[in-house]
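[User] Could I get a sequence and C-alpha cells?

[Assistant]
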Amino acid sequence: MKTDSIVELAGQSIERRDLLKLLCLAGVVASGGLAGCASQRAPATGPKSPSSESSSPRDEFVFLQLSDTHWGYSGPNNPLAEVTLREAVKAINGSALEPDFVVFTGDLTHTTDDTSVRKQRMREFQSIVSDLKVKTRYFLPGEHDAGPDAGETYRELFGETHGAFDHKGVHFTLLDNVSQPGSVIGDAQLEWFEKDVSRVHPETPLVVLTHRPLFELYPSWDWVTRDGARAVEILARRPSASVFYGHIHQEHHQKIGTIEHHAARSLIFPLPAPGAVEKKAALPWDPESAEHGLGYRAIRESAAGLALSEHSLSLIAPGEASR
C-alpha cells in the first residue's frame, strides 16, 4: 500500500443530547493482552517474512485511529463538513501525542456514482491528510469509497485494499470487507488471511483493522460482515487478538470470546446507538454541543497491554456562541 495514500452503547432509546454526551466523553479503556502499531506499507501478499519460531520484542508505542471522514459530504448534519477533516489534522498536529502511525478505517470519502467526482474527492482527501505530521499512514476503504465500483478507483489512487505489516512486536492485518457486494470479505481474502495469521508466532499479539464490524452488531442496519464469523474463528485460535473498525460512527466496545472489538467515532456526524431508533439516520447537528459526537482514538501499547483514549473534536459553526 502507498504510504501517503494507503491508517456499549446499549441498544436502547435515549434522548439525543444524552446520547451525544455519552458519545463525546473522552475516557480511557484499559485492556490486557493487546498491542498495536505499524511500519510503512501493508503489502497485499502479507508480511514478508514473519517468524513462526520466535516473537519480536515489544516496545511501547502509540498509533491513532481515525474513521469515517466522508470527505465530500454536504448537509445539515454537519454544516462544517468542508473544514472538519482539516480541523482534525490541525488538532492532531497540535496535540502532545507522538504516534508512530495513523490508520484511517474506511469511508474516507462520501459516496458518489460519478467516477470523476469520486476520484477528485479521494485526491482532495489525500492532499488534506498529507499535512499530518505523522508521515506513516495506512488507509482502508469503506463502502462509500469502494462500493460503487468494487474498489477500482480506490486501488488506482491508494493501492491494494488489504494487507499486513509488523511493528514493534505486533502483527497488523488490514481486511477489506466492503469491496465485494453483500458485505463480505470473500473466500480468496479469507484464505489469504488464514495463511497470514498462521505465519505469525503464537505469542505475537494480533491487531485487525477493518471497516465493518466482523460480528453481527446490528445486521438490519448493515452493521455486520456476512462472513465475518470465519475471520473471527481464525483469530480465536490465537491468545491475543483485537479488532479496530469504523462504519457505525460511534465509540463501541464488545468482547467476543477472547477477542476485543473496538469501533471508533466518525469525523463527520454520529449515528444512533444500535437499535435505538426504528430507522438508522445521522443524528442532527446540535448547536449546543461543542464536540458534536466527533472524535478520534489513540491506542497505546506497552508491556502492560493496550490502552485506548478517546479524543473529541471541537467545532463551532458560524453564528454559534464560542465556548
Observations:
- The chain has one domain: 16-312.
- Confidence is low (pLDDT under 50) at residues 1-53.
- DSSP finds seven helices and twelve strands in the chain.
